[in-house]
Design a protein that fits this description.
It is built from 13 helices and 23 strands. The chain is α+β, with helices and mostly antiparallel strands. It has four domains: 90 residues, Rossmann fold (3-Layer(aba) Sandwich), CATH 3.40.50.20; 64 residues, Dna Ligase, domain 1; 123 residues, D-amino Acid Aminotransferase, Chain A, domain 1, CATH 3.30.470; 91 residues, Glycinamide Ribonucleotide Synthetase, Chain A, domain 4, CATH 3.90.600.10. Strands 12, 15, 18, 19, 22 and 23 form a six-stranded antiparallel beta sheet that branches. A five-stranded parallel beta sheet has the order 3-2-1-4-5, with helices on both faces. A four-stranded antiparallel beta sheet has the order 6-9-7-8, sandwiched between helices. Helix 7 runs antiparallel to helix 8. The radius of gyration is 21 Å and the shape is globular. It starts with a strand and ends in a 9-residue tail after the last helix. Bound molecules: adenosine monophosphate and glycine. Glycine binds next to loops.
């Protein structure tokens, strides 16, 4: 096959490095551009200094560089209308319209859709008035689940254990507009293991990816503050094939159909953040894009041509053959800057990547005169593949030992849910 295709990947984190890596394996792809990219994408793509939310500049670049396909990573670019602008200009783009992106950007939109189409999720009420919200929360059991209704960079969800905490969170969200002018969704508190189910959606057709699990807390044993994700792995022993099929039929496929019925068809990734509760699998949240760090463990398993899939989704065509995935297990450990998710330093030298046997996806790195340095909170993700979780875990931590940097930390227990054979049913 002749390599002729020119692809633009929008974004600059580990997720985009993994997307670029999948496209780099396609025999059709001749050239990849990454805007803005990072030091990792620079090895397989040409980085372009355009911010991921600068829609007019990205459009101009795609037109002037005869880009055949644009693949969007971050939600901010979708919420800024990149999908609409490219479609209006007749350019194929893998990424939803702004209206369809509401499935992620507005909690209330997602909740209303799920209620209307009988998609299982936690019960809820939404408020724009502080006193009414507080009165409602005061009359209910704790913990209280409070969600700001808009994009809040992962910080818009508070699980308040006490009424004081709930009062403070409602004050931040409704009186002080810490995230902007939005409503607050108050949800029932659910329990059980969480997992991520991502699908490619080209309007009505829905193609599942392997399941994965993220590790949101900063420290071992799921302790410490919530982060963007400290590691992930595939092959979840606590989700049966029946669970997976039910989640696919009742949640992912039904949601794609619902979005069509609402006149807002999806065109990109639908990410279900799901929980296996004692009452069945329910939606915790939807995202309108690839998860990060889930993508870094899922896309390495892709055996089909990534260009065919992304292009089919972008142009609304059904795939002509099933998507092939490796049966192996992947496990990835994030190396983050000391202090993350709070304040952290940048510019610390990173050495030893050339000695790693598995993959390293770069999340927050830059190249300076004397080499690779840290430039973000999450810096690297080391991903290993194996026949079992144990094997993949040993390989990943062995690779981590080869990397030296004086300002990074990581969790030592990625995939503990799978390895400890932990109680797999939801807590009763
Ligand atoms: P979200 O940003 O919506 O994914 O929420 C962040 C985290 O809060 C989730 O990963 C869950 O661990 C937790 N969470 C969100 N909603 C609920 C809920 N209804 N019940 C229990 N935990 C929740
Ligand atoms: N890993 C969670 C997310 O991408 O939102």
């Amino acid at each position: 096959m002749q390599s002729t295709k020119r692809v633009l990947v929008v974004g600059g984190g580990g997720r985009e490095h993994a997307i670029a890596d999948a496209l780099h394996r396609s025999p059709q792809v001749a050239e990849i551009f990454c805007a803005p990219g990072n030091a990792g994408t620079a090895a397989i793509a040409q980085n372009v200094p355009i911010k991921d939310g600068d829609v007019p500049a990205l459009l101009e670049f795609a037109q002037s560089h005869r880009i055949d396909l644009t693949v969007v990573g971050p939600e901010a670019a979708l919420a800024a209308g990149i999908g609409d602008a490219f479609r209006a200009a007749g350019l194929p783009i893998f990424g939803h319209t702004k209206a369809a992106t509401q499935i992620e950007s507005s909690k209330e939109f997602a909740k209303k859709l799920m209620a209307k189409y009988d998609i299982p999720t936690a019960g809820y009420r939404s408020f724009d008035n502080y006193d009414e919200a507080l009165a409602y929360v005061s009359g209910r059991p704790l913990p209280a689940v409070l969600k700001y209704d808009g994009l809040a960079a992962g910080k818009g969800v508070v699980i308040a254990e006490t009424l004081d905490e709930a009062r403070q969170a409602l004050k931040d969200m409704l009186l002080d507009s810490a995230f902007g002018q939005g409503r607050v969704v108050v949800e029932d508190f659910l329990t059980g293991p969480e997992f991520s189910f991502m699908c490619f959606v080209n309007g009505r057709d829905v193609y599942p990816m392997p399941l994965s699990q993220d590790h949101k807390r900063a420290f071992d044993g799921d302790k410490g503050p919530n982060t963007g994700g400290m590691g992930a792995y595939t092959s979840l022993p606590f989700i049966t094939e029946d669970d997976r099929q039910l989640a696919f039929d009742r949640i992912l496929r039904r949601t794609a159909e619902a979005m069509c019925a609402e006149g807002q068809p999806l065109s990109g990734v639908l990410y279900g953040g799901l929980m296996k509760t004692p009452a069945g699998i329910k939606v915790i949240e939807f995202n309108a894009r690839f998860g990060d760090p889930e993508t870094e463990v899922v896309l390495p398993l892709l055996q089909s041509d990534a260009y065919d899939i992304f292009y089919g989704v972008a142009t609304g065509q059904a795939l002509t053959s099933p998507i092939a995935w490796s049966e192996e297990v992947t496990l990835g450990v994030v190396m983050a800057s000391q202090g993350y998710p709070g304040k952290y330093e940048k510019g610390h030298a990173i050495r030893g990547l050339e000695n790693v046997q598995g993959r390293v996806f770069q999340m927050g790195t830059a190249i300076k005169e004397d080499g690779l340095v840290t430039s973000g909170g999450r810096v690297l993700m080391v991903v290993a593949t194996g026949k079992s979780h144990r094997e993949a875990q040993e390989k990943a931590y062995h690779d981590i030992e080869k990397i030296s940097c004086d300002n990074l930390f990581f969790r030592h227990d990625i995939a503990h849910w799978a390895l400890e054979g932990k109680e797999i049913e939801a807590e009763k």
